[in-house]
Amino acid sequence: MNAENINTFVPKVSAKKITTSSLGGSIATSIATSIAGTLGGTIVPKLLNPQKVKTATPAFVTAGIPLEADPAIGKNFHPEKVSIIMPAFNAKDTIGEAITSALNGTHKNIEILVTDDGSTDGTEKIVTDMARTDARIKYYKNSKNLGAYKSRNVMLEAATGKYIAFLDSDDTWEPNKLEECLNLLKQHPEVKSVGHALRYLDKRGNKVSYIPTYPTNQTELQDVQENGALPWVFPTALVAEREAILDIGGFLDWKVAADTEFMARLAQRHGMLGTKAPLGNYRVLGNSLTDKYWLDKRLAIDCVKENLRARFAVNRS
């Protein structure tokens, strides 16, 4: 699979124009109903109330070099901080590489909020050892296993940056990832979130394929906001204004497809653009590219598309 052929993987729905307000207000509930019907169960979506988010308490107080005194920042210092949220569960084999890739980025004004979701494999020691040498790393430990989506929501309250980026503990970024994404946001103040393409990494860390992003221009964004095309952005490829994420309520507490639903709400309410440049690396730990993650994504896409088709049919009548 290469970049030239990748558009065939972008999920789109062709339909009559509807307004953002008519879709965005109830999209979470509608998609929940659609997915619940497919799974044969009941899902009641509860949006995050920013006023009621439980503030997380650091499990480890960093003793590293204060940000303003760090000579590594130098001319690359930027006043706009990015809070990097990283849920982790038994990630000792990959989390050090993930954190290092963020620290080595050209945009130095960052904080890395690692949320340990009950690891028993030595993840804590790896992160706290790294935090002793760099105060930008902050380690949190959940009192019980919350899952990645809830952990991200809790960290939104602890974050102090204007911008939020998500980095999974087994993924990595290219050095210019944040710099490129922030530049894109500055060039397009009409949107509050941006994404980028990714490269697949196999279990050995080799780059084996390409994952696209969507939308990448105003025409595609219009397709998302007016025609119901689905945005195609992985959490590890997103950079967004914190206030925009809080405004839409963060992630829903679903076992599957919450990232797809989250991106749909964010793009509908605050706009989203992306770059085709692969600025990050998504690690595949399963036996093939058709692992459980992709089965979940396929289910989500089918449910959302059926929901949108039903809405557009009503709109036509």
Tell me what the structure shows.
- It is a single chain.
- By secondary structure, the protein is of the alpha/beta class.
- The protein has a single domain, classed as Spore Coat Polysaccharide Biosynthesis Protein SpsA, Chain A (Alpha-Beta Complex), CATH 3.90.550.10.
- 36% of the residues lie in helices and 17% in strands.
- The chain has ten helices and nine strands.
- Strands 1, 2, 3, 4, 5, 6, 7, 8 and 9 form a nine-stranded mixed beta sheet that branches.
- Strand 2, helix 4 and strand 3 form a beta-alpha-beta unit.
- The termini are far apart.
- Through-space gap between termini: 40 Å
CATH-defined superfamily = Spore Coat Polysaccharide Biosynthesis Protein SpsA, Chain A
Largest sheet composition: 9 strands, mixed
- Give unreliable regions as ranges: 1-55, 61-78
What structural class is derived from the secondary structure elements? alpha/beta
Question: Radius of gyration in whole Å, from Cα?
Answer: 19 Å
The SSE string, one letter per element, is HHEHEHEHEEHEEHEHHEH
Helical content, roughly? 25-40%
Percent of residues in beta strands? 15-25%
User: How many domains?
Assistant: 1
The shape is globular
Q: Output the number of helix runs.
A: 10
Give the second-level CATH assignment, the architecture.
Alpha-Beta Complex
By DSSP, the count of extended strands is 9
Mean pLDDT: 74
Given this structure, which CATH class is correct? Alpha Beta
